[in-house]
TrEMBL record:
Coiled coil: none annotated. SUPFAM superfamilies: YgbK-like. Residues 8-102 form the Four-carbon acid sugar kinase nucleotide binding domain. Pfam families: NBD_C. This is Four-carbon acid sugar kinase nucleotide binding domain-containing protein.
């Protein structure tokens, strides 16, 4: 990775930390616009950048809304090192709410059961 990208990641993480320290929720998002010449490496770079920004936060938000299958999986598994989660509902169709856990033991201690509980959304 080049130094320019690493500096960008660090500056964005610092900017988010400043807002969170003040109790201000933030929205970080990427463009939905397709750019001609976009390669898989470009897409992986965007995903990596999002993961690294969240990983470098020193103040963690009370919630993370990650829309998209790959994006939400990447943020949960790579930024927060999540191994298991409980689906507790959904905001809109296709936007689940997960309670993240980093280990099976942590999940069991917080839910007083073994394994993952998934309840139907009504």
């Amino acid at each position: 990775l080049n130094a320019k990208l690493l500096d960008y990641i660090k500056s964005k993480a610092n900017e988010i930390d400043e807002y969170l320290l003040k109790g201000i929720d933030i929205c970080m998002y990427t463009s939905r616009k397709y750019t001609s010449g976009t390669t898989i490496d470009d897409l992986n770079s965007v995903n990596y950048t999002l993961i690294e920004i969240v990983k470098q936060l020193t103040i963690h938000p009370l919630f993370v809304l990650a829309k998209g299958g790959i994006t939400s999986h990447s943020i949960a598994s790579h930024s927060y090192n999540c191994k298991q989660a409980v689906v507790v509902g959904q905001i809109e169709k296709g936007i689940p709410i997960w309670l993240l856990h980093t280990s099976a033991e942590e999940l069991d201690s917080k839910t007083n059961n073994k394994g993952i509980t998934i309840e139907p959304i009504t």
